[in-house]
Known about the structure:
Elements: E1 3-8, H1 16-31, E2 35-40, H2 46-57, H3 63-70, H4 72-87, E3 92-95, E4 103-104, E5 113-115, H5 119-126, E6 131-135, E7 138-140, E8 146-148, H6 154-165, E9 169-174, E10 195-197, H7 198-206, H8 214-223, E11 227-231, E12 242-245, E13 258-274, H9 279-289, E14 297-299, E15 306-314, H10 318-331, E16 338-351, H11 361-371, E17 378-382, E18 385-391, H12 395-405
Parallel strand pairs: 1-2, 1-9, 2-6, 3-6, 9-11, 10-12
Antiparallel strand pairs: 4-5, 7-8, 11-12, 13-15, 13-16, 14-15, 16-18, 17-18
Helix pairs in contact: 1-4, 2-3, 6-8, 7-8, 9-10, 11-12
The structure holds adenosine-5'-diphosphate (ADP), aspartic acid and magnesium ion.
The site of adenosine-5'-diphosphate (ADP) has 19 residues, from loops.
Amino acid sequence: MPTLVMKFGGTSVANLDRIARASKRVAREVANGYNVIVVVSAMSGKTNELVGWVNETSPLYDAREYDAVVSSGENVTAGLMALRLQEMDIPARSWQGWQVPVQTTSAHANARIEAIPTDNIEAKFADGMKVAVVAGFQGISPEGRITTLGRGGSDTTAVAFAAAFGAERCDIYTDVDGVYTTDPRITSKARKLDRIAFEEMLELASLGAKVLQTRSVELAMRYRVKLRVLSSFEEPSDNAGTLVCAEEDIMENNVVAGVAYSRDEAKMTLISVADRPGIAAAIFGPLADAGVNVDMIVQNISEEGRTDMTFSCPFDQVKRAQKAMEDAKASGSINFHDLVADEGVAKVSIVGIGMRSHAGVAAKMFATLRDEGINIKVITTSEIKVSVLIDRKYMELAVQALHDAFELEKAA
Ligand code: ADP
Ligand code: ASP
Ligand code: MG
């Protein structure tokens, strides 16, 4: 029997009515002849609440206990969804990550899925079970501890199950009806895309578009999972939502496909470090060991053998970064005058595979920001994206101005 994966995000299971509504959608696919693997998120807001409790209890928490707490939201929705389906006379049961088991690395709070043995769930399907409701976002480490996959990780659970079970499709049900040229919450001119290339979606996701977790797109690309994003609030139709697919399957060819932003950034500058071979390793080694995800890096011009080193990292890792740098200073491996944290920055990026063959895209971006009087603090580029760090208070303005400048409201 063909298998389908259906993932419901937080807003789609936010209360019992929504769980009932999602269950009806699942029932329809069962009636269409599928064995369904449902992947659920926690009720919306729940994970934030759990993370808040952990931070309040222990600011530099033990990530194993963070995972024990934060994974619990998904257990509730998985059980409730299974109960709702049973009430509808559909044979269903819930599965927590460790029961499948979803085998992950031990990188707590940010674990990667290594394997999903299919035999337990297959055996139940063979026994007449129609729906396996899997708690998203969680797994089990080789040490037997509960892990989580990073924020937004239920998307990755869904795609990983679709790959492991050879599912016909992986449908991601969320609160928007597809992937847009930018977050529709920032501008009403955002346009829904019928299709988007894996590479573009990968960049948009990693640059902050939280509609899909980056790792889920990576997996879909690697295993050629048919991945669709659609609304759980609208009536289904055949061409609903956005299909994430190979570049060759796309007709549209805007140079820029979309604008992404990330609000939760911080810029940190080490003032006056010795400019000598090995200094970058001495700084970024300890940061990596402390679990700080460094993104942009700028080394300033050096004067009299000393330089400033600037880097960006997620806002909530500032304390960790500070501690790692103070520890490194205390151990004598680096020396600096001061560590300045600017917690009021945001990153805005433009993404498009058309940039490979078009010159002047970055220049146009910089001119657009100049015209709005927005100062750029740090720039990074790759083959298909340009990112800038700016003051957070100009973030929405920057996204809107770039969306206009690249005429993203119009299909090419
Ligand atoms: P879920 O809880 O279903 O996983 P998320 O909140 O994680 O939903 O992701 C959906 C949200 O992603 C949307 O509500 C939207 O605000 C945001 N978003 C950001 N960028 C985009 C984009 N380019 N297209 C669509 N949605 C986007
Ligand atoms: N509940 C988790 C989160 O909010 C995972 C997810 O929803 O994808 O990050
Ligand atoms: Mg999400």
